[in-house]
Write a structure and sequence with these properties.
The structure holds 2 protein chains of 2 kinds. Helices cover 0% and strands 51% of the residues of chain A. Chain A has strands spanning 3-6, 11-14, 19-21, 23-26, 32-38, 44-50, 56-59, 62-65, 75-77, 86-93, 100-102, 106-111. In chain A, a hairpin with a 6-residue loop joins strand 10 and strand 11. Chain A starts with a strand and ends with a strand. By secondary structure, chain B is mainly beta. In chain B, the strands form 2 sheets. In chain B, strands 2, 4, 5, 6, 9, 10 and 11 form a 7-stranded mixed β-sheet that branches. In chain B, strands 1-3-8-7 form a 4-stranded antiparallel β-sheet, with no helix packed on it. In chain B, a hairpin with a 3-residue loop joins strand 4 and strand 5 (42-50). Classes of the chains: A mainly beta, B mainly beta. At the A-B interface, strand 5, strand 6 and strand 11 of A face strand 4, strand 5, strand 9 and strand 10 of B.
């Protein structure tokens, strides 16, 4: 079945540091890929998405490129802020419609 | 546009009881999906409803069930609660007929089973 693997956290960075959170997937066909973010006490918010190979999703300074050859969708941000502290989830949806398969989540802590 | 709402936000039950959680999707969204979030298992898909029909189901026992009403509101029910059912239950709604459907999540219902 489909699966998503992402780097375990927590990831602790200083403000303005560069962020990378690795995500790889296993799926049949051509899934759509997503990054969701969860702030404390809240539900999930879509951060960005990509629907086909070489697509780059971007939002709020975050970027991720759909790499089919390496089955990866790594999340990057050039300069993190304290307000980016949250848990980040990589996810995919395949042919089964709206069923999202999530990675285990990566907690990011940004220190001033 | 109002977001996805879930009620109640917090719930405490004892083993053996049953519980019903409610989800109101964003207006115009006909698909509602449910997820269970626990520290040990992470986020796991429970089921999806579209136009009052269950379209997909995750790998959960039959104690977990759901339904969807004609106004797209959805409920999920857990019978004979076990300690391991303690979790954050998230509901998400979307337009099912669009590519790479963005799912909009509610704030969740935190269920504690004692």
């Amino acid at each position: 079945g489909d699966s998503v693997t992402q780097m375990e956290g927590p990831v602790t960075l200083s403000e303005e540091a560069f962020l990378t959170i690795n995500c790889t997937y296993t799926a049949t066909g051509y899934p759509s890929l997503f990054w969701y973010v969860q702030y404390p006490g809240e539900g999930l918010q879509l951060l960005l998405k990509a629907t086909k190979a070489d697509d780059k999703g971007s939002n709020k300074g975050f970027e991720a490129t759909y790499r089919k050859e390496t089955t990866s969708f790594h999340l990057e941000k050039g300069s993190v802020q304290v307000s980016d502290s949250a848990v980040y989830f990589c996810a995919l949806s395949g042919y089964a419609g709206n069923m999202l398969t999530f990675g285990g989540g990566t907690r990011l802590m940004v220190k001033p | 546009k109002a977001g996805v709402t879930q009620t109640p936000r917090y719930l405490i039950k004892t083993r053996g009881q049953q519980v019903t959680l409610s989800c109101s999707p964003i207006s115009g969204h006909r698909s509602v999906s449910w997820y269970q979030q626990t520290p040990g298992q992470g986020l796991q898909f429970l089921f999806e409803y579209f136009s009052e029909t269950q379209r997909n189901k995750g790998n959960f026992p039959g104690r977990f069930s759901g339904r969807q009403f004609s106004n797209s509101r959805s409920e999920m029910n857990v019978s004979t609660l076990e300690l391991g059912d303690s979790a954050l239950y998230l509901c998400a709604s979307s337009h099912r007929d669009r590519v790479a459907n963005e799912q909009f999540f509610g704030p969740g219902t935190r269920l504690t089973v004692l």
